[in-house]
Every structure is written in C-alpha cells, then in structure tokens.
Amino acid sequence: EPEVTQTPSHQVTQMGQEVILRCVPISNHLYFYWYRQILGQKVEFLVSFYNNEISEKSEIFDDQFSVERPDGSNFTLKIRSTKLEDSAMYFCASRVRTNQPQHFGDGTRLSIL
Amino acid sequence: GNSVTQMEGPVTLSEEAFLTINCTYTATGYPSLFWYVQYPGEGLQLLLKATKADDKGSNKGFEATYRKETTSFHLEKGSVQVSDSAVYFCALLYSGGGADGLTFGKGTHLIIQP
User: Fold this and answer.
1) Assuming Cys at both sites, which of A69, A71, B55, B105 could form a disulfide with B6, CB separation 3.0 to 4.6 Å?
2) Which residue of B has its CA nearest to A105?
3) B98 to chain A nearest CA, in Å?
4) Could you count the other beta carbons within 10 Å of the beta carbon of residue A40?
C-alpha cells in the first residue's frame, strides 16, 4: 500500500538556524498538509497546499514558516529561524481529493537546542 | 471555533475487556468525524470515519457512531487485545468555508495488559 514518507525521522538543530523538513506524498494525491504535535499536546494543523499554493493556514503558521513543492514528488516545510518552542513532531499528510481521508507520514521529530 | 475533547488517559485495561473512549466535539455546521490511531514509533493511521449524523464507522472490531444530538463520536471495541495498545485521536473536519485542516483531540493513550 502506498504511503507518505518523511525525512529525516529526527532532526536536531541549533536555535536560529534554518531547517527543512521533507515529505513525499502519495503519488496520485493532490492535497498536502503539515501538522505539528508538541510533546504531550494535541496534533495541530499548520497549513494545507493545493494546486501549487497555500489553501489554508493556521495562526501558528507565521512568517517564519514556508512550504514548497519544488518538483513533482516532494513537499517541504521550511522554518527560517528556529526557536526553542518549534521543538515538536511534524507530520505531513496528503489526500487524493477533498472527500477522501488524509494519509499521514510517520513524522519528523524536530529538536531545537 | 471547532474543538474536540477526549477523555484523559492513560486508559489501562485487561485483554478481552470492553473499551470505550469518549469523544465530544464543538463545531459549526456538519463536520466529518474520524478516529486515528498512532502505534508506538509510527505515524497517524486512519481507523474509521463517519461523514453524517447516525453514520457508524467500523474497522478492526472498533466502532463509533456519529451522534449529532449529543455531539459525540465515542470509540468502542467489544474485546481488546494487547496489540490495540496505542494512542487514539478523535478528529473533525469542518467541510464549510474552504477549511480542510483536521482538528484533533489531545489523544488517549490505551494500554492493554495480558
């Protein structure tokens, strides 16, 4: 069964550095998402992406964040200048169309030192 | 705004016990409701879903019924196994206004003892 893959599984970065989290959605999917889960808290929606543009973003997704689909397979989340509070598990998800469920990757654990 | 409330965990049960994990929601309009499961070291997997009132979602022996009158979507299983140990997330998707991000509850950690 096709799945969403995320790399790396764990990223350690110094505060203030830029970080890029990578995702390969399922190949025929058209809608892409990023979520995060701070340790011990709920999974929170960050952003959705369709047709090469952001379709919705939450209050968390401020100017430090950006997303990109640089080619036909990858979907990336960039954090420009990381803060300690960016430490979390980041999940990528995709779905084929709006009335189908979202499929999630295994997540990238981001640790900011 | 939309929100999901789940019972706090961890929930510890013996094998073959009956399971209920409560989930209630607040939303405008008519959301779709989901249960996702996260096994240790893995990502979120869709367990079941219901898209309208009185729908029952079911999968792997788990069931949940979309109750509009009580705004609930409680997860049940008649006889749990050790392999059901995981974190369970209730979530909603509000289908109006172009929004398509899921709203999750905090998750309920289920521990099944042999």
Assistant:
1) B105
2) B43
3) 8
4) 7
- Residue A63: the pLDDT is 94
pLDDT value for B41: 80
How large is the average pLDDT for residues B88-114? Answer: 86
A31:B100 CB<8 A: yes
Q: CB distance B46–A101 less than 8 Å?
A: yes
Q: Any chain A CB within 8 A of the CB of B73?
A: no
Asked if the bond preceding B10 is cis, omega within 30° of 0, the reply is yes
* Per-residue model confidence (pLDDT) at position B14: 97
CA nearest to B37, candidates B46, B25, B26, B28: B46
Binning pLDDT at 50, 70 and 90, where does residue B9 land?
A: confident
Burial class (CB in 10 A: 0-12, 13-18, 19+), B62: buried
User: Scanning the structure block, which residue is given the tokens 């203030």?
Assistant: A16
End-to-end alpha-carbon separation of chain A, Å?
A: 37
Confidence tier at A57 by pLDDT (50, 70, 90) = very high
Instruction: Classify residue A89 as left (phi > 0), alpha (psi -120 to 50) or beta.
Output: beta
Please give the pLDDT value at position B2. 85
Token code pair at residue B88: 């369970």
Q: Which residue from B minimizes the CA distance to A106?
A: B43
Q: Do B98 and A107 touch (CB under 8 A)?
A: no
